[in-house]
Design brief:
By secondary structure, the chain is an all-alpha fold. It is rod-shaped. The model has no long low-confidence stretch (mean pLDDT about 85). InterPro entries: Integral_mb_put (IPR059228).
Amino acid sequence: MTEKPELTPQPAQSGFTNAVLMGFMAYLLFPLMALITVIFALMLISDDLSGAGIALIIVSQVWVGAGIWGHFHRKKLLRQSAQEMDNDS
């Protein structure tokens, strides 16, 4: 294509883009899914379907774990991105 340096993707930019996506998932998507799952589980428990409700509460804990994992993975990506920026300058 073109040889313009401003159009070539930098490794730090791709790391930052992945960190933004990880932040969206860790701070918005996973907690929202956990909240929706817990609400649905509590509705099932109140309707005397405790087995299904407890199973959904366990699923909600998976969403919470995924959010925590996303938080730490995002921190790692941002740290790597900052190191690449320092190495470039």
